[in-house]
Amino acid sequence: MGRAPCCDRENVKRGPWSPEEDSTLKSYVAKHGTGGNWIALPQKAGLRRCGKSCRLRWLNYLRPGIKHGGFTEQEDNVICSLYKSIGSRWSVIASHLPGRTDNDVKNYWNTKLKKKLLTAHSNLNYHHNKKKSNNNSNGSKHTCDSTPPSPPTAAVLAVKSEDYGFGSFSMPADNPASSALAPVDAGAFGCFNSHSQVLVPEPASFPVPGLADQSNYGGSANGYVVSPSAQDISAASSCLTTDNGIGWSDNAGGVVDVFLMELGLAGPMDLLTDGGYGLLDRVGDVGSVQVGGSGLWPNAGDNPQELYQGVTYS
DNA sequence: AACTTGGTCAACCGCTCTGAT
DNA sequence: TATCAGAGCGGTTGACCAAGT
């Protein structure tokens, strides 16, 4: 048996609000406030609407000070940076943007900002590959294919996260790489939710033997960065395409910078792919990511055991 | 001009969280 | 402590509109 509906669906109006309903709700709230009880409000206000509907209409549209459309670049940046660090917690993100509602931010992200970033990112990858292609030609001039590069394939050492909102790789459950890896309780790492697993080659051990010390990279990553060798990575030799296989986001910390240095990428924005590809975009690239502390990226003072993952392109 | 396709956004649905009892 | 109702939230839907064919 399902949960009882919050209102009598037979007797409430649904769909778009009329100007009359808007003004009824507005004037009622102006006079009496919400009274802390949205369920009872429509009856008191004389509206044939569900209380939840009234609440939504008020919060997203009628409330004073609401802004619609016309997001500024500064707001874009706030949304991007918060999305990277906390994921799709729209209400939290909206609370950082005066006059914006969670619904607005969510719609804006889904319909515009995400595409904008993916486009920008694929352009970046395109130029990155183009540059590499030119380098490989020993200085000779290359004509460049006008079509964007197809997604590379990757061998994945560690990694499966089903639905955590930020700082995660993900691999389809039916990917052959999954079966080649041993599941490890990710709860110990404090970064994945209870449904997620971190997968490592058997036998599972932390840190993974053979992973290089981060000091090779200038020590700017809180002491925890590791860079697995291609041999380590080859232990997980199954391949998957990153097109729909790897999702990635980051909080733009020092680890990311080191990771990007290793990959020859430009900056943290390179990693904002939200399920797209482009984290590693060259055959032979080897990189590392970490799990530790209170989030995906360890902070100074976190336990160094709580880290690492590695990927390379094959 | 008619139809199709794709984008936008308001609104709904169903779940979890929270506070009162 | 357990239960329940209401609030809050994120994901999804569908109506509407504009652009393309």
TrEMBL record:
Keyword Cell membrane found: no
GO MF annotations in UniProt: DNA binding
Primary location class: nucleus
Domain Myb-like: 9-62, 63-113
Annotated ranges, domain HTH myb-type: 9-66, 67-117
Compartmental location: Nucleus
Signal peptide: none
Region of interest (Disordered), residue spans: 127-152
Protein name in the entry: Uncharacterized protein
Species of provenance: Colocasia esculenta (Wild taro)
